[in-house]
Amino acid sequence: MAVNKGLKSLAGTTPNFSNQGLENAVNELKIGWVIKGSQLDTAIQDNVVLTTSQKNDLKSTIHNIQYLNLGRVFGDLVRHTNTILDGTIVFLANPDTYTGCQQESLAEMSTIT
Question: Hey, how many other C-beta atoms are within 10 angstroms of the C-beta on 78?
């Protein structure tokens, strides 16, 4: 017996997910020393002179006391949820040649299994 619950119409639409709620919550927590850690994390992330390896080395060097580095943790959380929502977290062997959207990627993966 087939179950028809309108899932086709749901799957055929492009979702409009937003990270704004998480960003608002993180901004509420950026007080005192947390805002300094967040500013440092943003400065490292947005730096165009440093290579990715240098950025990772710098982050690991300053990440020696976990609870003092909540700014970086919050920055990583927001960046990670952004990659989930926009689909860039999905590994592509040739990302420069792929022009599909997240919905097309999911459809392609469902044909593999």
Answer: 15
Q: How many Å apart are CA 72 and CA 23, to the nearest integer?
A: 14
Region of 30 on the Ramachandran plot (φ > 0 left; ψ -120 to 50 alpha; else beta): beta
DSSP H or E segment with residue 26: helix 20-29
The larger pLDDT score, comparing residue 113 to residue 24, is at 24
Structure tokens at 84: 């989930």
Q: Which helix (H) or strand (E) holds 112?
A: helix 102-112
Least confident residue range of 2-6, 42-46, 64-68, 71-75: 2-6
Helix (H) or strand (E) holding 71, with range, is: helix 70-86
Task: Of 19, 12, 14, give the one whose Cα is nearest residue 74.
Answer: 19
